[in-house]
Hints:
217 residues, 4-stranded mixed β-sheet
Amino acid sequence: MKTIHLNLEKRDQVGTSSAKKTRAQGYVPGVYYAKEDEPVAVYAKANELQKVVDEAGTSALVDVELDGKKAKILFKEIQEHPFKNQLLHFDAYGVNLNEKIKLSIPVILEGREDIRVEPSVLLQLLEEVEVECLPTNLPSDAIVNVADMQIGDTLTVADLDVSSIDGIEVLTDAEESVASLQEPREEEIEDDAEEADAADVPTVDETDSDEDEAEGE
């Protein structure tokens, strides 16, 4: 498992005005939680945090250092600005490597671009599954390859790679559907055909250009 690092610093002041000031200085305010410990107000450099969040998401362990002490955390919640590319706040949860944790991880449909049956429509029916395991065994996602699916096929949670990995218990029902491959509806085929026909019809500019070339000859 790849190691991801993040430095955290304690915040002396809390509240809305303090949080705004922290962001204005290029940092993101957050809270660090650990079992049997009091929550600690912290902050991290905005650019470093963004890089870590992009890489780890909420389902990968992150190594942090706070007051000279090292710990492993999971992001429990990350707040982003609704339209700016900006992180507003984060909750970091310290984990015990010897205690199992429950977590939802994203489902990834691998091989979407390699599906051999065409035309077809791939439907993803489940976005995430819940797993329980030691933090050191935590997978970042649950993967299943869809390239060989045939029309009418349905893949279930039992087909995900995490369902057969030792040390990981999948809590989501094994029979729950993950993805299915279907024939496109008639209107979808007709729409595609109309778009293709429209692409073959010359525009006014193209017609004028062809006529000018013919007159020049």
